[in-house]
Amino acid sequence: MKTKKLLKKLLLLVSLSLIILITVFLIKNRNKLPKSFNVEIVKTGINVSIEDFHLIEEKEGGKQWELNADKAEVVNSKGITRLKNIKMNFFQKNGDELFVSADKGIIQNGNNNIELIGNIKVSNLDGYRLTTEKLKWTSDKKTILTDDEIEISGADLDIFGKRMTVDVENEIFEIYGGVRVLYYEIKNGV
Prior knowledge:
Strand content: over 45%
Number of helices: 1
CATH architecture of the largest domain: Sandwich
Low-confidence stretches: none
Distance between the termini: 84 Å
Mean pLDDT: 78
Radius of gyration: 21 Å
Oligomer: single chain
Order of helices and strands: HEEEEEEEEEEEEE
CATH superfamily of the largest domain: Lipopolysaccharide (LPS) transport protein A like domain
CATH class of the largest domain: Mainly Beta
Number of domains: 2
Number of strands: 13
Helix content: 10-25%
CATH topology of the largest domain: lipopolysaccharide transport protein A fold
């Protein structure tokens, strides 16, 4: 009898906590609400699943990056958000943009660092394209790095390497390990 009452009180407490959590989330993010989201209680904590996820990081009055994903799953117990089918834009001070796509990724909720995994493509407005299998974005340093093989291709060159770091703000690329560069001379615009 006492156990039943205790369980009912516990269930009521969990339900109220969930309602408060959802209300706070909705109030804080009312201008950025996704098309739909589901909340489920699991053994490890409360997870929020969001379809058509959209997130923007702004610093010093400007966009640093903008992220869209088909699905985001917030895992509060680990402090992460798992993403599926990702498309991102990184905004540079000079007005240029980097476009990024990946199969999946993980955001560290506390610092907005992002790890992208699988079929990663990065391109810019000049037509250069980078492909790799893993990339990490460090938000406070504005750097991108990978320890996986990379390929950069453009109209006049191909670059291959085993590791890379990019300082996005200063536009500095560093490629390491087995670096090969193939340069194609373009004559008469052909």
